[in-house]
Structure formats: structure tokens, C-alpha cells
Amino acid sequence: MSGTGSIISRVRHNQFSKTFFISLWVSLLLLPFAGPRIAVIFFGVVFFFVLLVRLIKKTASAEPVSIISSRIRSMSGSIYSGRYSGFMLLIAAVASAAAPFALTSYYLDILIMACIYMLLALGLNVIVGYTGLLHLGFAGSYAIGAYTYALLNTHFGINFWLCLPVSALASSAAGLLLAIPALRLRGDYLAIVTLGFGEIIRIVLNNWDSVTKGPNGISGIAAPSIAGISLGNLHLYYYVVLAIILIALFVIKRVEVSRTGRAWMAIREDEIAASSMGINITRYKIYAFVFGSLWAGVAGQLFAAKMQFVSPESFTFMESVFILCMVILGGLGNTYGVLFGAFIIAIMPEALRGIDSYRMLIVGIGLVALMIFRPQGITGGARRCR
Amino acid sequence: MLIKISSINVSYGPVKALKGVSLEAASGEIITLIGSNGSGKSTTLMTVSGILRPDSGDVIFDGFSIAGLPAHKIVDMGISQVPEGRRIFSGMTLHENLLMGGFSADASALKQRLEKVYELFPVFKERRLQLGGTLSGGEQQMLAIARALMSGPRLLLLDEPSLGLSPVMAQKIFKVIKEINSEGVTVLLVEQNAMAALSLCTRGYVLEGGRVKLYGPGRDLINNDDVRKAYLGE
Predict the structure, then answer these.
(1) Which of A246, A336, B125, B143 has the most beta carbons within 10 angstroms of its beta carbon?
(2) Is A310 helix (H, G, I), strand (E, B) or coil?
(3) Is the dihedral of CA A96, A98, A101, A102 positive or negative?
(4) Residue A382 burial (C-beta neighbours within 10 Å; 0-12, 13-18, 19+)
């Protein structure tokens, strides 16, 4: 690419009509809800922004950086890697540590939920992002964690910390049970089986009245405590969740760069090649299911302890899709990206509460737009460029 | 004999792909399998590497029966396959591709083999951080071979390494195969390019319809009238 002039003309030729149709599509989508006036305004706004973004992108890529180095940079990670990583981490650390002091309990509540979703997204990312196995029933694993704690706590009074490994193990065990039939399947078929798994768990919880109290749910679940001090208060509970996320992040990152992590990525890229490298595909797929589900169990327990109430309606198929959206939005296989995606999707419905009836529409449009402009997710998934 | 395949039958569902194929390779040989499409060349390789399982018959490697073992165990025993169509990990860097090849190796062996592979393919060393998918076809084939060497095989299975490559590049690949072989690795080569493969090999097998039709030293096969007619275009 040469000068700026030719870039702009290129944008005109190649991108103008595409931008036009995208804006038109968005405004047509809005038309029945918002009336013609807002639709036209939206058309203008979207058109302007999309064009702007595309121009910036074109100009940026014309910088005289060697193609390979820029490619490596964009592949090996995201805004989090490279020169700014330390700085970004510091900001994130300070912001997350200080959050309870700056936020009202309403926002803190949302933030805690966002953190629980982050944990779920991290777990699902192991299965979908690293290993490339489409899992549509992750809410099932989440529910098992939540109900394990709910039942053990209300019936036997087992405390939060003792129960945490039990919930994690229960979810992992369910992951193992799911993995065994799922291993023979790929792609669409696997998706259906996992979807069935999620639904089976939910329906069992809904109908097994004698144990789970069916749709009425289980209430009176205890919050965690340390040395007799209850951590049920939102401010304190936030730190419990934060600590667990940090542990999860650390562990998952370690596993990602380990031999197991490499095996997962090889399976994702090419199963046949992976097996001819000497990777036991069956075993590593099972590992992925078990290890990913483990975090769903932990997240489930955190959810149960926060709400102090669980019912099957928190673990519907929509919930699974929601978690999957977070993983895809953040960037499949990119650990930090997934955290970011989970955060965005979890807070979006609340952040947009001001515009009330349009909010789910905006979320939807945002997702579609993202898939058009950055199909690899916000932070551009891990090394995947196919 | 390093490997001895004795009358294996392999089928894909109702379709019989191999009907009693037997072949053997002594340590240090280059064995070529040629034959038309569907004659069972790739099937033979995939049976040896454990991706397919024979209905009957046996594969003896170094005195052990390996027929029906899972692929990853066979790799550990010292058989490495370069699959047809290369199948490199396109989203991983060159270096990571090589690391994957040495998946079962311990750290010291891995380091040693990496050095050796970089010595054999010096161009890879400077490009180690490049993504596999950004390599040209020929380079990808080289990478696939390099990756297969990372497991430290005694027997290397190559499935149509010259597929889709320019004649110059194909020549380079054959040169590399010769070089690898001269370091003591036994090679089992499946090729469409019969002329090149037969002049490279110590012995060749001609497959037809899932059976071994002819076998013998490469020279003899090149001079065989039937082979010339069918595979060398004369």
C-alpha cells in the first residue's frame, strides 16, 4: 500500500457499499420498534461510525511495519500483550480491588454476577476455545455446582469452603460422564449431545421434587464465613469471588501453556495430525471436559451462595448460550479476551437498562456487528486465523 | 526386518480396501508404494500408523505386533507419519508445530531433536515464529516432515509428499527424504510421482486393487514393461 490518498479511494471503492448495507440493515431492524425517525437517525450514526472504524483500520494497517512482525503481534495476543501489559494489569488490579468502595451495592451486585460469568466463561473456554469442542450445555455443569452446595449446605450444614472442592468435583464428574458418549462425536452432533446434557440436568432438577424441591427451588443457603465472620455482605463477598477468579486465572493460564494445553490446541487445529503426533485424543478431550466443568462447579457454588437461593430456572439453555456468546465475543481461546467478553455481556443488559425495551435489541445488534467486523472476537482469539 | 506387514485386510465399512497386502522393510531401506488412485497405498500407511485397524493380518514392528494399537502408542514406539495433505497446525508458529511433533519426548530429547531439525532445515530457524499457515505449500510439506522427525522415529511414513508441489520443490523434498534416510531412518513412501519415487527407493511395491501386484528393487520396476505402461506413461 502506498499513500493515504490511495487508501481512502480504496475504502470508497471496496467498503462504501458494504458499510451502506450494514447501516441499512441495522436501521431496518429498528424500524418496527422505533419508528422511521429514529431508524433514519440510526442509519446515519451507524454509517458514520462504521466508515470511521474502517478508515482507521485501513490507515493503521498501512503503517510501514513489517508484515510478519505485525502479524505475529496481532496473533500472539491482544491489547493485553506487549509493552502495555504490565500497565494494563496494574490498572485492572487497582480497579478491581477498589471497586467495592466506589460502587453502590446495586452495581456491586452486577459486578459480582459479572465475575461469576467470567469464571464460567473461563471454564467453557477450555472446552470450546482451547480444544474446539462445541459445548451447548454448560449451564448443566453450572447447575450441578450450585445444587451440590445448596443441598449439602441446607441438609448437612457443610460450610462453603469444605463444599467448594466437592462442588468442583461433582461438576467434573458430570463433565466426565458427558465426555464419554460425546467423544465419538464431532461438530453438530457433539453440540446436540451437550445440549441434551444441559437440558437433562435442568429437567431432573425441575422434577425431582423430593430432593430439589422442583421449580420452587432451595432457599436458605448459607453465605461463606471465615472465623465466624460472615462474608455474605456484598462488599466482602466480592473479594471472595475475586480471589477465586484470580486463582482460576492462574491455574488455567498454567495449564494453557503446559503440555496438556498444547495437546488441546493441536486437537482443535487438526485431530488427525494431533493423533499422528502421538497425542491420545480421547484422553485429552476428557481432560478438557473435566477441567472446564470444574470451574462451572465453582461458579455454581458461588452463585448459590450469593443468591442464597437456587432454582432450575437459573440454568436454562439460554444461560448456556449466554456463556458461549461471552467466549465467542471475547475471542475463542484467548483467556483474557474471554474475561473481557464475559464482563461486557454480563453488564450489558444492566448498563442499557436506561433505554429499557430496546436494550436486548441493542445487545443483539452489537453481537451481530461484532461478528461482521471482528469474527475472531474483540481481542482476536488465540492464534486462530482460519 | 524392521517392519513386516503380513497379509492385512482393511475395509471401510463394506468396501474392502486391502486384500491381503504383505510387505516388509529392513532397517535403513526406502520402500516405495506406487499404484493408481484407490489401490490402497494410503490405506496401508494409515494401518501401519494406527489410524486404521486391520480386520485381519498382522503388522510386526521391531518384533512387536502393533496392528490395532492406537495411533499415539505407535508414535511412541518409533513410527512417525507425515499425513497426506500435510496437515500442519496452521494457527501455530513453526516452532510450536515442531514442539507438537515431539509431544511425547522428554525435555532433553526434545532440545536435541530441535537442534537437529533446525540443522536439517536451516531456513526454519530464522522463521520459527512465523505461523504455519503462512508458509508456502512446499515449505508446509517440509515442516510436516520436520515435525514428524521430532518424535525421533525409526520408521518414517510419508504419504504423497510431492502432492501439489512444483517439480523443483518436489525434487527438494525427495532430496530431503534421501538425507533423512542416510541418517538411518527407514522410510516408507507413498507416491504418485512413480519415476522419482522408484529411482529413490531401495525397493518398491506396486499396488493394484488392494493387492500387491509386483515388487522388487526400484531399478527393476522402472524397467518393467507393465510398470512403464501403467505408471510411467510409456
Answers:
(1) B143
(2) strand
(3) negative
(4) buried
B-side interface with A, Cβ within 8 Å? 49, 51, 70-72, 75-76, 80-81, 83, 87-93, 96, 99-101, 103-104, 129-131, 133-134, 147-148, 151
Query: Which among A263, A265, A277 has CB closest to B101?
Result: A277
Handedness of CA A163, A166, A168, A174 (dihedral sign): negative
Q: In what order do the strands lie in the sheet with B3-12?
A: B15-25, B3-12, B56-61, B64-65
Q: Where are the domains of chain A?
A: 4-64, 82-373
SS3 assignment, position B102: coil
Cα A69 vs. chain centroid, distance in angstroms?
A: 29
Nearest chain A alpha carbon to B102: A277
**Kind plus residue range of the DSSP H or E element containing A14:** none
Give chain B's end-to-end CA distance (angstroms, integer): 34
Q: pLDDT tens digits, residue range B139-185?
A: 999 999 999 999 999 999 999 998 888 889 999 999 999 999 999 99
In CATH terms, A82-373 corresponds, of 1.10.3470, 3.30.420, 3.30.110, 2.40.160, to 1.10.3470
Q: Are A112 and A238 in contact (CB under 8 A)?
A: yes
Do residues A143 and A304 make contact, with C-beta atoms less than 8 angstroms apart? no
Residue A354 φ/ψ, nearest 5 degrees: -55, -40
pTM: 0.81
CB distance A269–B83 less than 8 Å? no
Q: Write the pLDDT tens digit of every residue in A258-293.
A: 889 999 999 998 888 898 888 999 999 999 999 999
Report the Cα A4 to chain-centroid distance in Å: 38
Long-range contacts of A347-354 (CB under 8 A, 24+ apart): A347/A110, A347/A111, A347/A114, A350/A110
ipTM given for this complex: 0.84
| CATH fourth-level superfamily of B3-231 | P-loop containing nucleotide triphosphate hydrolases (3.40.50.300)
CA distances to A77, A279, A299 from A249, rounded to whole Å, are: 16, 25, 13
Could you tell me the residue ranges of all domains in chain B?
3-231
B151–chain A nearest CA distance, Å: 8
